[in-house]
Amino acid sequence: EKLSIFFTLEPIVISMKTWNRLTPEQQKMFADVGRSLEAPALEAARKEDGRVADLFRSHNVKVEQLTPEAWQQWQKLFQESSFEKFRKDVPNGSQLLDETLSFYK
Fold first, then answer.
1. Cis peptide before 11 (omega within 30 of 0)
2. What is the pLDDT of residues 18-67, one digit of tens each?
3. Distance (Å, rounded) from C-alpha 15 to C-alpha 13?
4. CA 80 to CA 86: how far, in whole Å?
5. How far apart are alpha carbons 78 and 86 in whole angstroms?
6. 103: Cβ–Cβ under 8 A, 6 or more apart, which residues?
């Protein structure tokens, strides 16, 4: 499930301008390599999540895993308190936010 407030574009990022200049064979190579790196990148991220949670616990911080229901409540509160300001104050904020939110649909 996508219960995250942060994600990165990894392990390969390429601009569409550059992508469109590649041959179909080169595009296939990039796509194949990207797919081959997805599972190891996800596993490394999960391992890092565990390491960070353990670090917090070692400093007597209570760590809880969000349920999907709690995530939805948090997301609603976050949107109500922050999205309008982001759209107004950040250059291209509406476009950036809409593109990011499309990941969750």
1. yes
2. 999 999 999 999 999 988 888 888 888 889 889 999 999 999 999 988 88
3. 7
4. 11
5. 11
6. 2, 7
* pLDDT, tens digit, 9 for 90 and up, residues 58-95: 999 999 888 889 988 988 998 899 999 999 999 999 99
Number of residues that this document lists for the chain: 105
Structure tokens at 78: 């976050």
Cα 62 to Cα 53, 78, 99: the distances in Å are 9, 22, 33
Per-residue tokens: 97: 């936010």
Helices in the chain by DSSP H: which ranges? 16-21, 24-58, 68-78, 84-89, 93-102
Residue 10: other Cβ atoms inside 10 A: 13
CB count within 10 Å of CB 51 equals: 9
